[in-house]
Amino acid sequence: MLRARPDPRAAYRRVEFDARVATSDPRQLVALCYESFVTELGTALFAASRCDMRMKSEALMRAIAALTALQLGVRGDGAVVAALHQLYASARDAVLDNVLNFDPATITRIRQDFTEIAAALVGA
């Protein structure tokens, strides 16, 4: 039986990610989730342009995982919390819709929105 070879790049990224998580405070963790989400959407766009459906699907699933982490981290009440829940739920629905019916324009728009939010978080 053939076994898949481990991807050394993926292993390196995982180790780097784990190290960053272990040394981050809550604000840095949020920034890391945004960074991961934006990066994975970019990977999905690249993969789709190359007709690599496996890479695209894997990137979209990692993007959803990053978004889920963001959703789980939102606590409290108030307008900002409600807005974050709405933003994350809408983005999640849109990304899930794109797993089967990929629309580069939608993914690009979501990616740009989250890039701007991430830049504001880092600058704040």
Fill in the keyword field for this structure:
124 residues; Four Helix Bundle (Hemerythrin (Met), subunit A); globular
What does this structure look like?
- The radius of gyration is 15 Å and the shape is globular.
- It has 124 residues and is mainly α.
- It has five helices and no strands.
- Helices cover 82% and strands 0% of the residues.
- The protein has a single domain, classed as Four Helix Bundle (Hemerythrin (Met), subunit A) (Up-down Bundle).
- The mean pLDDT is 87.
Question: Can you lay out the helices and strands and say which pair or pack?
Answer:
Blueprint lengths: L7 H15 L3 H24 L3 H21 L5 H22 L3 H20 L1
Beta-strand fraction estimate: under 5%
Number of discrete domains: 1
Q: How many DSSP helices?
A: 5
Largest sheet: none
The CATH level-2 architecture is identified as: Up-down Bundle
Tally of extended strands? 0
At the first level of CATH, the class is: Mainly Alpha
Per CATH, what is the topology?
Four Helix Bundle (Hemerythrin (Met), subunit A)
CATH superfamily: Flagellar protein FliS
Short description:
The protein is mainly alpha-helical and 124 residues long. It is 82% helix and 0% strand.
